[in-house]
Design a protein that fits this description.
The mean pLDDT is about 90. Helix 1 packs parallel to helix 3, helix 5 packs across helix 6 and helix 9 runs antiparallel to helix 10. The chain folds into two domains: about 200 residues, Alpha-Beta Complex (2-enoyl-CoA Hydratase, Chain A, domain 1); about 50 residues. It is α/β, with parallel strands linked by helices. The strands form two sheets. Strands 1-2-3-5-7-10 form a six-stranded mixed beta sheet, with helices on both faces. Helices cover about 50% and strands about 15% of the residues.
Length: about 260
């Protein structure tokens, strides 16, 4: 499928999804939101795809919301604005519905909603040129795109409050220090590093990988150890029905590399 605001490139079993309005620093427009959800549905419906890398074309990951569209919303009644914004954000946050591993490869500026979008990915890797800013407050706007939900869970409540309340822009080194990104690499190493990591995860038994991802996020939200133990037991029982666990045990005993084949 062809998109006007996105680029999709399949690299073996990995899909690379690029926000592709580089001349305007990849603003998150209404059109992009519609195409983004379609792309996520396309990716999620392809059983051959075992991992996703999200990045931006050109010099930015995303400069965030489209200011012209936001100006229009200042004239809209609050009840209509609320529903429009809710649906807009949900389309981008649909990336959280994917069972496969998702990595944000942050190539440049990630501002406002653009910074929030990368938080919705499982792992974040940054170019040393990357900049991050949750700048909603600087235009008198309450944070959106689940910023108040995702950011505290990644960097802690106090740091999230500081970033959201000041709108300060931080560099990749600071983003790494506070745990927002897992790695900082040279610009030319960004995509190779992201591909290497997602391929490493995708080479693992996918039943275990996908059910583990589900458990991590549900447990994170429920924060109940008994519920976590029940879910882990259920998912472990599922993995014990796969051929991959037999292969993994046998390969470990025989001191050889395992050859996994199961998928869900």
């Amino acid at each position: 499928m062809e998109y006007s605001t996105l680029l999709l490139e399949k690299v073996g079993e990995i899909m690379v999804l690029k926000l592709n309005l580089p001349d305007a620093l990849n603003p998150m427009t209404q059109e992009m939101s519609l195409e983004f959800r379609q792309a996520i549905e396309q990716i999620g419906g392809d059983p051959e795809i075992k991992g996703l890398i999200l990045t931006g074309s050109g010099q930015a990951f995303s400069a965030g919301g489209n200011l012209k569209e936001m100006k229009y919303r200042t004239e809209a009644p609050p009840f209509r604005h609320k529903e429009e914004v809710r649906q807009f954000y949900r389309k981008f946050l649909s990336i959280r519905n994917l069972k496969i591993p998702t990595i944000a490869a942050v190539n440049g500026y990630a501002i406002g909603a653009g910074a929030c979008l990368l938080l919705a990915c499982d792992i974040r890797i940054a170019s040393e040129k990357a900049k991050f800013g949750f700048t909603f407050v600087k235009i008198g706007m309450h944070p959106g795109m689940a910023a108040t939900y995702l950011l505290p869970r990644i960097v802690g409540t106090a740091k999230a409050y500081e970033l959201l309340a000041t709108g300060d822009i931080i560099d990749a080194v600071e983003a790494y220090r506070i745990g927002m990104v897992s790695k900082v690499v040279k610009a030319e190493e960004l995509m190779p590093t992201a591909l290497e990591l997602v391929k490493k995860i995708a080479s693992m038994p996918m039943v275990a990988v996908k059910t583990m991802k589900e458990s991590i996020y549900i447990n994170f939200e429920e924060a109940n150890i008994e519920v976590a133990l029940d879910r882990e037991a259920a998912h472990q029982a599922l993995t014990f029905t796969t051929g991959d666990i037999k292969e993994g045990i046998a390969a470990t005993i025989e001191k050889r590399k395992a050859k996994y084949s199961d998928n869900i």
